Amino acid sequence: MSDGIGGAMSGPIVLPLDDLVAGERLAATIAGRLRAGDVVALEGTLGAGKTTLARAIVAALGYVGEVPSPSFAIIEVYDPPAVRLPLVHADFYRLEDPAEAAEIGLDDYREGAALLAEWPEHAGGFAHEPNCLTIRLEMREKGRTAIVEPGRGWLERGPWT
Hints:
Structural class: alpha/beta
CATH architecture: 3-Layer(aba) Sandwich
Number of helices: 4
CATH class: Alpha Beta
Mean pLDDT: 91
CATH superfamily: P-loop containing nucleotide triphosphate hydrolases
Distance between the termini: 14 Å
Strand order of the largest sheet: 1-7-6-2-5-4-3
Number of strands: 7
Low-confidence stretches: 1-9
Helix content: 10-25%
Order of helices and strands: EHEHEEHHEEE
Shape: globular
CATH topology: Rossmann fold
């Protein structure tokens, strides 16, 4: 593991998220590097901060207003000019089988858009995709830790701090 990317990466990047400002800083970094076709897979237990980080990413992409949790709708879509690129925010927690992701038309939603995926394992996972940035959030005594694992497509997008 490493505490950041300086050059070659030797493993996941571990970032302390001691407060909301640290989470917003991570969200701004992700939003600044996000491209159509990317997946940001947000993993962690209930209450780990997946939705909070997703909301911060949506806000960092320029969205002004309330960012609802897609827990019940499963998918929320954000289009320009409200955000700088088309974005799909999905919460797959209620899926009982990964095949349900195809049934709700996930591939159609993803066409030309970036995807923020909460509970990605319920949709079959995305880590196999080269443009997947996996972020595992873990709770600590004080704050949280983000364990960031960039796929191949994210490695050249600059240092993580």
